[in-house]
């Protein structure tokens, strides 16, 4: 348990920040799942439009260092490749 007032306050702040980060991660996962759902449905135009929205979510969360920028890039690359494969 935290003994100093400063440590108690930092513990309170950490709980709030953890909840906020969890919310952002949930938003990220939802955005990725929306694109994957459109890909499975085979609707290329819908998948592309949803992908564009998801890219901004990925970049925003990577900028806040909730996930690493390379992880965001990897997700974008793989989703983009799957959308391109729909035409074939």
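Q: What amino acid sequence fits the structure above?
A:
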């Amino acid at each position: 348990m935290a003994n100093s007032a400063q440590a108690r306050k930092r513990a309170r702040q950490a709980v709030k920040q953890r909840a906020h980060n969890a919310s952002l991660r949930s938003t990220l996962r939802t955005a990725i799942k929306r694109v994957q759902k459109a890909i499975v449905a085979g609707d290329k135009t819908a998948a592309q439009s949803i992908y564009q929205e998801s890219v901004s979510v990925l970049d925003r969360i990577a900028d806040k260092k909730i996930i690493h920028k390379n992880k965001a890039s990897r997700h974008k690359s793989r989703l983009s490749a799957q959308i391109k494969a729909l035409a074939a």
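Q: And what stands out in the fold?
A: The chain is about 85% helix and 0% strand.
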